């Protein structure tokens, strides 16, 4: 499984989201590759991703890609990530 964490530039928020998503996936005992990306890279790479994690502000810009888009409000809230990833994956 492939998950892409997306922010505008691909170097800040997406990296934090990637690291926390990896923590949650370990807690859920789910194997997945998580990549941090900017918008352009995410749109190109999404063809083989199952899930895209991003900020609520970027959801509209990502519509139309071939992956489930999940908006994360609080990047440091592992419970939010756990809840939303569990719902999508289990």
UniProtKB/TrEMBL annotation:
| PROSITE patterns named among the record's database cross-references | PTS_EIIB_TYPE_2
| Transferase among keywords | yes
GO MF terms here are:
protein-N(PI)-phosphohistidine-sugar phosphotransferase activity
User: Which sequence ranges form a coiled-coil region, renumbered to this chain?
Assistant: none
Name assigned to this protein: Unannotated protein
- Biological process, per Gene Ontology: phosphoenolpyruvate-dependent sugar phosphotransferase system
The organism named in the record is freshwater metagenome
**Keywords, alphabetical:** Transferase
The PTS EIIB type-2 domain, residue ranges: 1-90
Q: Per the record's keyword annotation, is Isomerase included, yes or no?
A: no
């Amino acid at each position: 499984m492939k998950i892409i964490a997306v922010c505008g530039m691909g170097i800040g928020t997406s990296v934090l989201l990637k690291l926390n998503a990896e923590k949650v996936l370990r807690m859920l005992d789910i194997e997945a590759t998580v990549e941090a990306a900017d918008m352009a890279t995410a749109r190109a790479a999404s063809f083989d991703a199952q899930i895209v994690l991003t900020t609520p502000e970027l959801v509209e810009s990502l519509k139309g890609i071939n992956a489930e888009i999940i908006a994360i409000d609080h990047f440091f809230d592992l419970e939010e990530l756990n809840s939303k990833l569990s719902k999508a994956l289990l």
